[in-house]
Write a structure and sequence with these properties.
The chain contains three helices and eight strands, in the order H-H-E-E-E-E-E-H-E-E-E. The relative contact order is 0.16. It folds into two domains: 44 residues, no CATH class; 81 residues, Beta Barrel (OB fold (Dihydrolipoamide Acetyltransferase, E2P)), CATH 2.40.50.320. A five-stranded mixed barrel has the order 1-2-3-7-6. Helix content is 24%, strand content 38%.
């Protein structure tokens, strides 16, 4: 016994972890939805790029979503523009329903439309930081 931990307990834990790792190919399809960042599945999803121009219909800063020209666009992460860096909720505070905007975005089957660049009235441009 070392520092209150028995070797028998460590051995049991090691065996359980080993079995989970060895059996991973059998249950990967059931858990891949819970870890989309880590699971690539060996197949790359094709993402298309779109330009959405139109009037902002609604803004949901809590969810990070704007609706432009009937398209729901996800706006997340940090954004830079006009010499400042903004978190998405601060950027969406500047976007108001009725504004004419241009949104450059990607489309993914998994996530839908995801904004990469937003051009506000007056040519004010914000780009998503990597």
């Amino acid at each position: 016994m070392v520092m209150g931990v028995s070797y028998k307990g460590l051995l049991v834990a090691a065996i359980i972890v080993g079995l989970l790792v060895a059996a991973f190919p059998f249950y990967v399809d059931y858990v891949k939805g819970y870890a989309p960042i880590y699971y690539s599945g060996g197949e790359e999803e094709e993402e298309e790029t779109y330009v959405v121009k139109g009037v902002v219909e609604s803004v949901d800063a809590a969810q990070g979503v704007i609706v432009v020209d009937g398209k729901s666009i996800l706006v997340k992460g940090e954004w830079s523009g006009e010499g400042e860096t903004l978190y998405y909720s601060d950027l969406l505070a500047k976007v108001k329903p009725g504004m004419s905007v241009t949104v450059y975005c990607r489309y993914s089957e998994r996530w839908g439309y995801m904004a990469e660049e937003i051009v506000l009235p007056g040519g004010v441009t914000y780009e998503k930081e990597e």
